[in-house]
Amino acid sequence: MNSSVFSFLSEFVFLLLLFIQIPSSLSNDDLYTACRKGFVCGGISAGFPFLGAGRPSACGIPELELKCDHEKNITTMNISQVAYRVLEINREFKTLRIAREDYLAGLCPPQFMNSTFNPKVFEPDEDNRNFTLIYGCEDVPITIPPYSTFKCKIKDVDGQSGYIKEGDYGPGECNGSVIVPVPKLYFPPGLNMPALEWKTSALEVKLKIGFEVRWKFERECQECYKSRGVCGFNNVTSQPTCYYPGMHSPPEISL
Ligand SMILES: *[C@@H]1O[C@H](CO)[C@@H](O)[C@H](O)[C@H]1NC(C)=O
Ligand SMILES: *[C@@H]1O[C@H](CO)[C@@H](O)[C@H](O)[C@H]1NC(C)=O
Ligand SMILES: *[C@@H]1O[C@H](CO)[C@@H](O)[C@H](O)[C@H]1NC(C)=O
Ligand SMILES: *[C@@H]1O[C@H](CO)[C@@H](O)[C@H](O)[C@H]1NC(C)=O
Ligand SMILES: *[C@@H]1O[C@H](CO)[C@@H](O)[C@H](O)[C@H]1NC(C)=O
Ligand SMILES: *[C@@H]1O[C@H](CO)[C@@H](O)[C@H](O)[C@H]1NC(C)=O
C-alpha cells in the first residue's frame, strides 16, 4: 500500500478511536484548558507534572499530587505514604523542596516511616545524605554522645531513649528507625565533621528547613511547549502527552 494512504488511514482510525473513547470524558480541548491552569497555593505554584486543586489526573503524574490547605495557606503532598510540606517548587531546575510534616513539631513522630522516593518519578538523589533516627532503645550505645540522643513517648510510654546517626540503619536492639534525607550542603567537603558530632537539635532544625528532590519528565514536553501545547499525562501508556487547543490542531499525541 502507498505509505501516504496508509498514514492517512491510520490517522483516520486513530481519530475515530479518539472520538469513540472521548464523549463520556473530557474532550481534548477541555483537557488543554484544564491542564493550562496552574496549581497555586500560598507561595507555591506549579504546572506539569503536578496534579491537584483543579488539575485533574490527565494533567500530571499520579505520584505528584499537591493539596492546598486553604486555612493555613500551605501546600502538602504524600510521597510513598509519607506526608510532606511543600516549601518550594522550582520548574527550571525541576526541584521540589519538602519537609516531613511529622518532623515539623519535633523529633517524635506518631508513626515510623522511612522517606523513600520512587525512581520512576524522581531522579537518583545526589543532593542529600541520609540520617537515621533510632527510637525506643533500652540502652543507647556508649559510642553515641549525649548531644546526639533524645527522648520520646512511644506507645504511650514516656521518656524512651533514641539517638541519631548518619547513614541508613535498621532499629537493631531498639524499637524503630526512620531514615530521613538531609542536604549534603550541610556537610562541606574538607570539614569532614564526623556524623556522630551531629547534635539532635541541629537535625531538628534541618528537618524543618527541608531538602530537595528532583523530578523526572518534562524533557519530553519541550516539543509540546514549542508547538504551544500543554503537557499532560496519559494514564494508559504512563507517558507524558501533549494537548493542543482547538479542534483543528493535532489531537492528543503521545510523546
Ligand atoms: C498566602 O501566602 C502567600 C505567600 O506566602 C501570600 O502572598 C498570601 O497573602 C497568603 N494568603 C493568605 C490568605 O494568608
Ligand atoms: C485514567 O484517566 C481517565 C480520564 O482521563 C480516568 O477516567 C481514569 O479513571 C484514569 N485511570 C486511572 C487508572 O487512573
Ligand atoms: C495523604 O494520605 C492521607 C492518608 O492516606 C490522606 O488523608 C491525605 O489527604 C493525603 N494527603 C495528600 C496531600 O494527598
Ligand atoms: C536513603 O535511604 C533511602 C531509603 O532507605 C534509600 O532509598 C536511598 O538510596 C538512601 N539515599 C542515600 C543518598 O543514601
Ligand atoms: C519495644 O517494644 C516492645 C513491644 O512493644 C516492648 O516490650 C519493649 O519494652 C520496647 N522496648 C523499649 C526499649 O522500649
Ligand atoms: C527503614 O529502613 C531500614 C533499613 O533500610 C529498616 O530496617 C527499617 O525497618 C525501616 N523503617 C521503617 C519504619 O520502615
UniProtKB/TrEMBL annotation:
It comes from Salix koriyanagi. PANTHER family: KINASE-LIKE PROTEIN, OS01G0690200 PROTEIN. Its EC number is 2.7.11.1. Its main location: membrane. Residues 1-27 form the signal peptide. This is non-specific serine/threonine protein kinase. It is a single-pass membrane protein. Residues 35-100 form the Wall-associated receptor kinase galacturonan-binding domain. GO terms for molecular function: polysaccharide binding; protein serine/threonine kinase activity. Keywords: Glycoprotein, Kinase, Receptor, Signal, Transferase. It is an enzyme of class 2 (transferase). The keyword Transmembrane helix does not apply.
